[in-house]
Amino acid sequence: MRILIVNPNTTSSMTEKAATAARLVAASGTEIIAATSRMGPVSIEGHYDGALAIPGLLMELKERAGTYDAAVIACFDDTGLEAARSFADVPVLGLCESAVATAGFLAQRFTVVTTLERSRVLIDNLVHRYGMGDRAKVRASDIPVLELEDEASGAIGKLRAEIERALREDGAEAIVLGCAGMTDLARELREIYGVPVVDGVAAAVKQAEALVSLGLSTSKRGSYAPPLAKPFIGEMSRFTPMQAAG
């Protein structure tokens, strides 16, 4: 089984962090393939960044078609998830959807701790969309994404402080890390706080493995039907849909 981990931002160190987390949990017969978008923002913080990250994400899926059995989009905003599911004929998983589903198996109440306030609002909307709005709260820890790459930034202290507030004030029984850049911290934080700490990369990889093993993929009837063939003009001409990828 081959799972493609696509980082929709252009920071390769974040890709490697996600790939390492994926390989730690992948089954012995699973190959993790890591890809970094070659166009778009260096980090995804809000709607504008996310919109401009989608073409690069889709290009990686398109150019690698046929080399993977499932794909994971390594951004907690689930950037481009709907478009990717329409394009690909293999399962495509997003970190937020995978993480909150996993947390729901483990706790009645949980808190997602993310980076900036603009990301908190976006993720809160996703949590409600995924049916977990009554069980989950989303908190921002005031950390720019790229500060998670800098050990001297103080980002980890801010993250821990927000987790402690979640446990104290929200009655959280589990914590979800709301950024792919936090993926390497899950095990340590689990040991420190003694509650389940869910990393979206790990959750998505295991769910992708399950779907492939079950022989299941995204329905192509209705909303995720392949894009209709039509001209795309200008800079977007390279994305002209001809047929679904595989």
Automatic annotation (TrEMBL):
Its EC number is 5.1.99.5. GO terms for molecular function: amino-acid racemase activity; hydantoin racemase activity. Keywords: Isomerase. It holds the Pfam family Asp_Glu_race. It comes from the Bacteria. Gene3D superfamilies: 3.40.50.12500. It is an enzyme of class 5 (isomerase). The lineage of its organism: Bacteria, Pseudomonadati, Pseudomonadota, Alphaproteobacteria, Hyphomicrobiales. Belongs to the HyuE racemase family. This is Hydantoin racemase. It catalyses: D-5-isobutylhydantoin = L-5-isobutylhydantoin; D-5-benzylhydantoin = L-5-benzylhydantoin; a D-5-monosubstituted hydantoin = a L-5-monosubstituted hydantoin. InterPro entries: Asp/Glu/hydantoin_racemase, Hydantoin_racemase-like, Iso_Racemase_Enz_sf.
